[in-house]
């Protein structure tokens, strides 16, 4: 009986590992969200391997254990690929940016979110699914005199970018064909340096190939931008998802690793980072933290600080 149980468990674990490992063969959209959980699945596979070995100590059980450890190890290595160095970490920041997916039905917490944004001391705030803040816009605009988005009532209030400084340039565009106006490209001047700010809200990766088309459009937009750049928003995928990996490599974007987990909020530190803030040299992240309270959203927000390199020297604070 133990022999039968052993091989049944081995068969189930082998199939599960094969599905997760399909990322090394193909980036099939229906499974793409699973790839964001590779490290988590690897841990579960290790536990399952020990259970199998408790039933029978056979060589195949050890093979499964080794393969599980490889999945975890490679997941960690993939995360480190996009890790920002410690450059300028001991210097005051050039500017501070907050990014937060409010959640489109989060009306009851709109006042608390508004107060949190104003109290954040962020120079730039990137708010997604900002519709619940419709009735607090004037309060926000008083603290942040310059904004992009939410100009035509609540039905058009999705992405809202707030700034304490005037925008040098501004553009609202769309990515892919599923949703409109979820790409904002702007620039703001800090200490005489123009910083390019990009906000993006991608579709869930298991919605057919829509996210891939959005990443292609986003890549074209970023490819046309010269100079220091920050990209913030809700990607609905972790940085180790194959499509996101390819995008980050192509655009030479970095972040601070490990990224704070932002979803699901109930999982806390055991969740994954699907909301991101990336920087491209000569701009560098020096701090990336999760907001203390998700305030009713199904995402946790992020706040980051940046420094700028000038010919190898980090710029001073403003």
TrEMBL record:
A family per Pfam: Exo_endo_phos
Gene3D superfamilies, A to Z = Endonuclease/exonuclease/phosphatase
Q: Where are the transmembrane segments?
A: 6-26, 33-53, 59-77
Q: Which domain of life is it from?
A: Bacteria
Task: Tell me which InterPro entries the record gives.
Answer: Endo/exonu/phosph_ase_sf (IPR036691), Endo/exonuclease/phosphatase (IPR005135)
What does UniProt give as the signal peptide span?
A: none
Official protein name in the record: Endonuclease/exonuclease/phosphatase (EEP) superfamily protein YafD
Q: Which organism is it from?
A: Rhizobium leguminosarum
